[in-house]
Amino acid sequence: MMLDVSERTVVIVGGGAVAARKARGLLAAGAGRVRVVSPAFHEDMPHDVQRVNERYQRHHLDGAELAFAATDAVEINEAVVRDARRAGILVCRADHEGEDIGDFITPALLREGELAVAVSADGNPALSTRVRDRLRASVDPRWGAMARAMGVLRPIVRRATGISLERRREVFQRLADDEALDVLQAGGVEALVKWIRLLYPELDHA
Questions:
Q1: What gap in Å lies between CA 24 and CA 17, rounded to an integer?
Q2: Are 39 and 53 in contact (CB under 8 A)?
Q3: Which one of 1, 23, 68, 81 has the lowest number of neighbouring Cβ atoms within 10 Å?
Q4: Cβ contact 86:108 at 8 Å
Q5: What residues have CB less than 8 Å from 6, skipping those under 6 apart?
Q6: What confidence tens digit (pLDDT) does each residue in 35-64 have?
Q7: Which stretches in the chain have pLDDT values below 70?
């Protein structure tokens, strides 16, 4: 699941290196409301977060839609998970210990422009990171360019009238093949739009 966090309040409980890494990842993903609760903060903790310089209490989750239990204390992480569950807040536990590990994980992310590839290895972040780094060498730079181009192409396909769902799927599949990538690389988005409209005349008036 890819979740838009730009308008969601996210609470991170913990101020160490792991919490700082979570905060950086959230900010990079567009999060604008990140609250970090801890008696102390790692030097790498981003400045663009709200710092609450206190020991964790249940009320620190007020207003949150996502929570991260990222302390080095098992009992505090357990409390965060328990309190989040009671409040109906999705929670991620960084230490993966205890009976309740939370509702979701944050996979290793490979990002090339608009292209994002998430890698998970069943709770082994070191393996996830290694696989991600190996995959990076296999990423075709044209894929990222096509992902950006879809910001133009997707509305054209969706606005087209008189085109079936099956036909729309066919268009999107065609936009993922090597010929489409070559057209985009050679002539840019404008050339790609002309090419796909030539193949699918239904898109001419979209």
A1: 11
A2: yes
A3: 1
A4: no
A5: 30, 31, 32
A6: 999 999 999 999 999 999 999 999 999 999
A7: 96-99, 205-206
3-state helix, strand, coil in the chain (%, to 5): 45, 15, 40
Q: Which two tokens stand for residue 133?
A: 């780094």
Integer Cα distance of 116 and 111 in angstroms = 4
DSSP secondary structure, 101-159, as one string = -BS----EEEEETTEEEEE--TT-HHHHHHHHHHHHTT--HHHHHHHHHHHHHHHHHHH
Rounded Cα distance, 62 and 64, in Å:
6
Opening angle at CA 17, ends 15 and 18, nearest 5: 85
Predicted local confidence at residue 181, as pLDDT: 96
Structure tokens at 29: 């993903």
H or E element in which residue 66 lies: strand 66-69
Strand partners, 112: 115
37 forms beta bridges with 13, 52
Residue carrying the six token digits 């085109």: 163
